[in-house]
Amino acid sequence: MKPGKTYKYRICNVGFKSTLNFRIQGHKMKLVEMEGSHVLQNDYDSLDVHVGQCFAVLVTADQVAKNYYMVASTRFLKKEVSTVGVMSYAGSKVQASAELPKAPVGWAWSLNQFRSFRWNLTASAARPNPQGSYHYGRINITRTIKLANTKNVVNGKVRFGLNGVSHVDTETPLKLAEYFGFAEKVFKYNIIKDEPAAKITDLVVAPNVLNITFRTFVEIVFENHEKSMQSFNLDGYSFFAVGSEPGTWTPEKRQNYNLLDAVSRHTVQVYPKSWSAILLTFDNAGMWNIRSENWERRYLGQQMYVSVLSPEKSLRDEYNIPLNTNLCGIVKGLPLPTPYTI
């Protein structure tokens, strides 16, 4: 880096499992963007980046011209694993100090940092959609879905699930089955309820598909009853991460939601023995995956699909299937259904 200049760094956690803390010796990081959304530009000494999340920060070369270490280390694990990279000032041959900045301790610090993230409502950028749902705090919630991650042993093997169902992929892709009108031959809708059982003792291994009405405003609460960190992603949408607290969620917790400037994003972390809540309008027709970003858990069933069907079957809501799509399973060799029109 050239002294006096400011640089943009993009920090992504593309790992399988662990939250990472990122920091730079002797330098502040000004957070400017998070998963496609402009945020209030606060300065941070370090950032917890949970699995699947990306941040953009500005770093100014305003220190003594020499080398500095960038440090990434795991969080919330019994054994910390870390690595370093070198950030060099142009023309300097002075080595970086061997004394590395330490990571914060405990997840309460991380929760407070999450609460400091705010959407920048004055930035000159497009809002998530033209329906005006960026005034999300004024929209009536039409449905509340609570998803509790669960773990159990099924037929001698560890499985993970949501609300007592461990998802398994089907031979015929879910969207193909639905598009061709064969959904009932491949999977059943709504085998989980919107409210998990008070005590989940068994896991059912089956395709997990929840039907959500097109263009409804929905509240999803992720509950984590385990001692480990969780991180969830929703395909096809950005949502507002409005709240996260220790304990069990109740409707009264809505009083603590950020209903003004929560960041519009597509991943959310859930701390141990805690819950996180998101709000969104399901206005993107399709078959969308909700999954754990911990890939061991995702592979072993901690994921599900949301089916959002447009009753109009119109190109205004959803494109036709591409003509060169490879058909497989029970739809292999079949002619394509009547295409959607405007």
From TrEMBL:
This is Plastocyanin-like domain-containing protein. The keyword Metal-binding does not apply. Belongs to the multicopper oxidase family. Gene3D superfamilies: Cupredoxins - blue copper proteins. One of its GO terms (molecular function) is copper ion binding. Keywords: Glycoprotein. It comes from the Eukaryota. Pfam families: Cu-oxidase, Cu-oxidase_2. InterPro entries: Cu-oxidase_2nd, Cu-oxidase_C, Cu-oxidase_fam, Cupredoxin. Residues 1-91, 172-312 form the Plastocyanin-like domain.
